[in-house]
C-alpha cells in the first residue's frame, strides 16, 4: 500500500521536486500540505504541522521542506505522532539536534531519513565505484554560483543556521563524503562573511584524508556568468571529474554515459525502502564538515551583500 505523505513548507524545492516526484511515485500518495502561505488544489491544507498531524488524513509520513532553522520542532512533533520523516538537506541547524531526532525516531520505531539529493546525481554512483579501487593523489572541489540567481529573496539562508554559501557547498560535501573511500577532516579554512550578513558568502577549505591525501574546496556565491559545480579527483590512473553538480562524469578524459537526472526519484525510492525495512538513514558527515569549518576556519569580513 502506498505511503500517505504530507509536505511541510511549500517553497521552491517542495514545488520543483517533492510534489511532482511524490505524485509520480507508485510508493507514495500526497495526502496533505502544511505551509503558512497556502496549499495545493484538491489537497487538505493546514497552516502548520501541528494541525496537519492532528488531522484525519491517515498520514504515514511527512517530508519537511522548510529552512533548517525551524525543522527540528516539526520533525520532533511528527516522530512523536508516529510518522516517518523525510528531512530536506541539511538535516538540521546543529549536529546535536539531528542526533536527538535520530534517537527519538529509533525510540518510536519510525524511519528518519536525512536526505542528500546530490548523492543521487547521475554520475555519482559510477564515480564512487571507480574510486573505490584507485589510489587517489588529490581532490579539488569548486562550487561557485550566483546567489542572486539561485536564492533570490531567501532571508533565512543569510541568517545563522541558514548556512550561507554552505547551503550549496554542503551538496558538494555530500558527494565527496560519499565517493571518497577514506574518511577526511578539515585542516584549515577561511569563511568570508559580508559585513551585513550572518552567514558566509564564500569559503576556502583545506582537508586531508587519513592517509594524507589533500582535498581543497572553494565555495563562492559571487560567481556570475557560467556556474561551476565541479569535483576533480587526481588518481594514479588518471583524473576523474564530476561536473554540473555530479550529473556529468569524465574519467581519464573520456565522457561516461550516465542516466537522465532523477535525484529526487532516487531519494523517494530510498525513503520507501527504508520505511519498508523499518530502518533509518541519518548520515551527518556533510553537516559535520560544515560545523568543523565554522569551528576551525578563520572569519574575514567582506563588503556588504544586497539582494
Ligand atoms: P524556500 O523557497 O524559502 O521555501 C521554504 C518554505 O518553508 C517557505 O516557502 C515557507 O513556506 C516555509 N517556512 C517555514 N518556516 C519558515 C521560516 N522561518 N522562514 C522561511 N520559510 C519558512 O526554500 P527552499 O529553496 O525550498 O529550501 C528549503 C530547504 O530545501 C532548505 O533546507 C534547502 O537547503 C533545501 N533545498 C533547496 C533546494 C533548492 O533548489 N531551492 C534544493 C535542494 C534542497 P510558508 O511560508 O508557506 O510556511
Automatic annotation (TrEMBL):
E.C. number: 1.1.1.48
The name this protein goes by in its record: D-galactose 1-dehydrogenase
Organism whose genome encodes this protein: Sphingomonas prati
UniProt keyword Cell membrane, yes or no: no
One Pfam family of this chain: GFO_IDH_MocA
Keywords, comma-separated and alphabetical: Oxidoreductase
Start and end residues of each Gfo/Idh/MocA-like oxidoreductase N-terminal domain: 3-113
SUPFAM superfamilies: NAD(P)-binding Rossmann-fold domains
GO molecular function, one term: nucleotide binding
